[in-house]
Amino acid sequence: MNKKMLSLISALLLFSVFFLAACSGGSEDSAPANADDVKTAGEDIEDATELSFWTFAGTHATFYANAADRWNKENPDKAIKLTVENYPFDQMHNNLLMALQSGSGAPDIADIELAKFPNFLKGDVQLEPLNDLIEPELDSFMEERINIYAKDGKYYGAPTHLGASVVYYNTEIMDEAGVDIDSIKTWDDYVEAGKKVVEKTGKPMTTIADNWYGIWPYVAQKGSDFFDEKGKLTLDNEKNIETLEFINDLVNKHKIAELAPGGQYHTEEFYGFMNDGGQASLVIPMYYMKDFTTYMPDLEGKIQIRPMPKWSDSDYQSVTMGGTGTAVTSQSEHVELAKEFLYFAKLSKEGNIQLWKELGFDPPRWDVWEDPAMREDNVYYQYFHEDIFDVLLSVKDNVAGIQLSEYTPDVLTEIDSNIMHKVLREKSQTPEEALKQSADTVRQKIGDQN
Amino acid sequence: MFGINVKKRDNPAHLMTPKKENRLLRFLNSKKVVPYVFVFPFILSFTILTLYPTIQAVIMSFQRILPGNVEFIGLQNYSRIFNDTFYKALANSTIYMILTVLILISIPILLAILLDSKLVRFKTLFRSALFIPALTSIIVAGVIFRLVFSESENAIANQIIGFLGFEPVQWQFTAWSGMFLMVMMASWRWMGVNVLYFLAGLQNIPKELYESADIDGANMYQKFRHVTLPFLKPIIIFVTTISIIGGFRVFEESYVIWQGNSPGNIGLTLVGLLYQQGIQQNDMGFGAAIGVILLLIIFVVSIIYLLLTGAFKRGDE
Questions:
Q1: Distances from the Cα of B22 to the Cαs of A131, A422, B33, in angstroms?
Q2: Which CATH superfamily, name and number, covers B82-308?
Q3: What are the residue ranges in chain A where pLDDT is below 50?
Q4: What is the mean pLDDT of chain B?
Q5: Which of A202, A406, B80, B231 could form a disulfide bond with B205, CB atoms 3.0-4.6 angstroms apart?
């Protein structure tokens, strides 16, 4: 090869490197890099009031832009120009926290994820209470969900979904094992069914996530939690130890559960594993329907939704889990308008129906579950089955809520990095030891701060 | 003043400006002023972006910071730093620092010598190829690393060690392999940059020294030991220092693999702890205290290293 050729190749290589680097640099920028990350509505309307919105989910961005279009049609006198910006998960919450802390730069409305919400309820809360919107219709809402975003009797977040935890059964595997899923009423039944599944098919009954999805739903369903109503830490109480022992037994004694590939339920590894018929059932909130239809196309028509099996000492058949609360910030110059729009988009009956239609979320207002509009055919009914909401209605009075405290993020960190790992994966601690040790760590922090 | 007045009378107004500029330029160009003019942009950015935040961080480390109520709480933040989690993070950061320094000094020197020798063809190609990782987005690299080193038997890394007869490894869930992933990622990323430093250093070694070494009958190793290394010493000290600092400040390598919480804290670093406590859990005073401690650690270690290598001594001593 001659020298000219060589230098030409080198030059090309260098060029491509800089080009690549430039592209990748863009995606890390604080401002959204491409048009997909910003959605606007009503920009062609004169005198429209400008409202800004931050979210971390692209699907939410589309949902709010659509809602703004509907709002502008119905309220031409109060038209809004909504700009929805979509940031990566951590970045959005960090930016919002900084903006609220420093007193400027926050949007009018923002999506805040459940596990992050307590961070925003510390100190003088920089969010606007939504009581005047929610209280008149409190009976229509699943209170367990609304209370998650409340502090001192003030509701700060508009829920996105009920997030009722259910069991998704892979009927192909269950049939192969010869188990009737409707015969599984209690967790003991579930274990027995699991043993049959493993024996007949060689596949695990379920997988357990390394993070709080692997323990919180079970704990809350047992009528316990990590904090009591007064905000006292109960992480290492009797019921929680029993629960973790049960989960540990699923994995390490009965051998009917494995650890989730990738460590949790929202990774590429897990989607692939589940899609290939890797496990017989999955315990997760309703919102996971969206993940099924998006990432697991091969399971269409093979998945049945059922309530969680019962504990012998508790009546709860579901737990409200995960989920995003949408809040109006105190920095907004149009608080009233922002609240009205938020009500229109998410809290009203119509808004709740749209949450189901567009996003496949189980609406937090139970009074729409029977609405004919909800029964219209859509991708979720095609993928799953027609009586999704009958399942929900059957458990309506037995849905457990969860208690949040300003120290909830600390507990979740302990669960993610210590408890599940040491008990299930490393087997270096018993459930009791791990829970007690983590509880002491968090208690020390609470004690130090008070 | 008088001079200007005279000119004002004599000259039309539009001629005044260039005269004034000349004075300004002359002032700026004077030997006493010009150094300050040149360092001004740096001083400005340093003051706003480094000095002010540093001072603010020290102040914040004595405060509890919540929206709308910030109060001084004395040494409370510092008194709760020293727990097991902190020591775990400190241990991880230190091990990571030592490993990256060892790898990112020794291998780049050898690669640089190789690239500088006459034995290798396509040098320019290799030089650019080695430099690519430094320009790649770490986020993208992290996703690829995660997939390559996933715990599935079908993942590339497990397939390779499978050929060699080893059992599949849960790369992201075991302490040693977690550290291995972080060090590997850092080595992959910074190798090319360090090679560039050493290549620059090699250019400065007079060819005559090698010729006379040849005449004296020195072999390859002796030439490396007695000619190359002594001339590279300043570069080695420089690269080691920035590697020590970079090693203690490690964050991204851990963050892109585990997104914050690693199982059993196997990937928790000091900056990771700062981020987790300060920002993810909204306890900025505590985060700032961790930052101040980290600053002190880096300061002390770097000073000790520089004293040991004699970097503060003058060349003629």
A1: 68, 74, 15
A2: MetI-like (1.10.3720.10)
A3: 1, 13-14, 17-35
A4: 87
A5: B231
